[in-house]
alpha-L-rhamnosidase
Amino acid sequence: MKHILTCLLFLLPVVCLAQTPIVESLTADYLVNPIGTDIAHPRLSWKIVSTEKNTLQQAYTIVVATDASFSSGKTVWNTGRISSDSSVLVTYNGAALKSATRYYWRVKIWDNHNHASAWSKPAYFETGFFNTTDWTASWIQPKQDSARLQPALMLRKQFNASKKILSARVYATARGLYELYINGNKVGDQQLTPGWTEYKKRLQYQVYDVTAMLQQGDNVIGAMLGEGWFKGELAYKSNWGFWCKNLALLCQLQITYTDGSTAVINSDGSWKSTQNSPVTLNGIYDGENYDARKEIPGWAAKGFNDAAWTPVDVINADKKILVGVQSVPVRRIMELKPIGIFKSPKGTQIVDFGQDMTGWVRLKVTGPAGTHIRIRHAEVLDKFGEFYTENLRGATATLNYTLKGGGTEIHEPHFTFFGFRYIAVEGFPGEIKPENFTAVVVHSDMAATGQFTCSDTMINKLQHNIQWGQKGNFLDIPTDCPQRDERLGWTGDAQVFSRTAAFNMNVAPFFAKWMKDVAADQFADGGIPFVVPDVLQTNHATSAGWGDVSVIVPWTMYQVYADKRILQTQYPSMKAYVDKIIKSAGENRIWKGGSVFGDWLFYRPGIYDFSEPNGYTSPDLIATAFYAYSAKLLSQSAGVLGNTADEKKYGDIFESVKKAFIHNYMTETGRIFADSQTGYVLALKFGLVPDSLKSKAAAYLVDDVRSRNNHLSTGFLGTPYLCQVLSQNGHAKVAYDLLLQKTYPSWLYPVKMGATTIWERWDGIKTDSTFQDKGMNSFNHYSYGAVGDWMYQNVAGIQIGKPGYKQIILNPQPTSKFTYAKATLETMYGQILSAWDVKDDQMQVHVVVPVNTTATLNLPQARVEDVKQDGKPLTGSPVTDADGVTVQLGSGEYMFSYPWVQVKEPVKAK
């Protein structure tokens, strides 16, 4: 007995330790240890790990200090013990933050089981410049030709660090794109800096920790400038130099020595530059010409003789528009090796990387000096196996490389990117081998958060394509496509995909940055451009479904991340847009002429084929529906922000638009004008159908789908909500039939045709293997991938109960067409798991609920007496209704099982 007691006492600390919560994954405004934030009140978040079920945070303490020791003299904020369950986006409210200062922070929490965590490991955030006067550097402009095509520009400055260095930071930006070098080495791992914004009003700067790159004594800082979006061709190759025709640099290096003294190395008139660059041509659409024979060894290192270089000019460019980067940087994310190297029937040498992607290739080659290699990029091959680039339109999308000779040469382009799966190689010396080419995948470095799998391999391939469509087009801004002479921030595309995007990846900082540009580009009358940044300049034109990005995306981000700040920041823009529609629509509340694009690229049969309905939806119906929806979301946003007057005002406007919609576009039987799928979908999704007519309107929608032999006829605006509306109105079986349709038009038709991303058109490649209109036929265009939202929310069943997934709804909708489905989602609280599996007539539902959240789980077609929870009879207070059993859960992992009889299809979504 004594021996047993001794063992129990020995195990007791281990048990207690296992139940002690752990605080981890600290972030400041979604970012891990960010450097260069200019947010005066950053928001701090953390996750809690506990093995004990039903764990909630009861209180927390945050300490912020200027030293990692957290000594009292260095503390700028100590909350003390705060009774709160908040662990997401807690606003810093300490002493005013100083520019160019690192702040360390840590947190501890107490849970509802009377356990206290240890202090978390310290995290930090480092500020940039809060004031324009913090900039002591000058804008410098190298001597250059104000020509459409010019070499990249190279600049350098030699300086002396006279003492032992404690720390050093570079603050830099450019008019154009820039790369920085210190003592011959590239600074940082970011690509295509400073990114793309509305340059006249917002220009980002980056901050780099370069302490390890400097040495006591002589040093050199260098920079290379490329055209990028600032000067290069944009918008169908119809313009160049949209913001300015000259490139410039702003660079400030701040050094702190170990004795506490400081030194600042500024961009100023002492810098020198040259146009004698090996990058002889660069552009977003054109690609790059690189002549390695023109390389200048040691140009960014000490000991180089720059006597032949030309002094730069100091210019008076605006610094008030400079903003710290609050989004995630563009980086090299992964690499792909060739899956095939072959010659086309006409003899073109082709390398296949197996995946339509965005980025570039790294070339590795040995050959004689002067050898010229030409590398073209394409998404697809034609029906004969030939390289196909006609859909690139005016984009040259080519890398030209000239060898310097003398050994192995390795090259990646500097100021461009390509959308491609295949490359065509000309002039390569010798036989091409897999090690000669590596595809480098480049996009905004957003953390992956969501995964979805099921028993159907084609649906898994569709999910793969959805994710790769996002990877290919979330490159600092949400582009429509990455390959042709466009690559613009189309607002409608981003709007329809934003919820799906937020499942796949953490897009909160990405959209927060871009939405500020949406507001910056907003017209004086409240209208929103078709693209942001607005390089089309379409005479202040606005289109329903596109302009609504100003309302829908902030609301979506609030729902997914519980981020009130994006609502606060964007609210003036949201309100101005809805007020613009109110004025345009007038007293009758019908927004005539408000839709420029209609239900863009909706399916239609041949233009002269009248044998079936063509899916056409009245543009005015679309405009009025979005008018109502944005008014509703604006009202709800006002409620969240405590603006009760606006909440009522815009709520009343929604009701009046709804009344006008019913009067003008609905019959008493529930039929909607034009009888199109999109008409029914928008009306039902946006709450415009009276409760008494919802079932009838949904039945008409089903009739249309069935009359088309389970094919859709929707475009960019109707497609995202099609399956969702069907499920929400008791027709999940029809939604599944649509999802699993393999013939055109459908989601799986491109998969069947070999797609590795989402296509712009339902029939980008036709059934006879010919192509759609070459003038507009992208094979990497994410909009139709918005069906992913339904897959995650309905097939797997992960839904939002309260913003940010503080309260979760788990409502899987199984189907006989799958044997299992599983989704995981990394939320701000931790990972949610929802999975179901049918084996031997037993339904197994596996769920994980993160710490500091709760969940409502719906077990479809279950009876309380049959359900086993973790192998035991169900306890608690389950609720039974006609659809199954509902269980309330706290945090933890659970397994439920019960008999499954395939007698009825998925039930109505709750």
Q: What stands out?
A: Residues 4-17 have pLDDT under 50 and may be disordered.
